[in-house]
Amino acid sequence: xxxxxLKARYTxxxxxxxxxxxxxxxxxxxxxxxxxxxxxVASKEVLERTGLPSMEDLIRKNLRWTRHLMRISPNRxxxxxxxxxxxxxxxxxxxxRLRFQDTIKRNQKLRDxxxxxxx
Length: 119
Known about the structure:
Number of helices: 5
Distance between the termini: 29 Å
Number of strands: 0
Structural class: mainly alpha
Order of helices and strands: HHHHH
Strand content: under 5%
Shape: elongated
């Protein structure tokens, strides 16, 4: 269950809205770095200190890689892996892990990009 309790509303994107995920990431980075609210450190500075990109940058890079995959030949290995299906094997209980293709579709929906033609 989603820690924010918004599971029913945000099932398409993920369990939480992107702003919640960004806040979740920043809260834990501040905790790891032992930065308190008294220190008054901006989120951008926290990201610079850790050397990590923001959630928006990660989504942008993912979509950029996807556009690259769409342009290359279908015979190339990355495209073959993207469109391949795993053999049906016994899975563990619980929610199945997201495939790369599912992640791409979720990121496209976050950015209001049409996914009808993308299979």
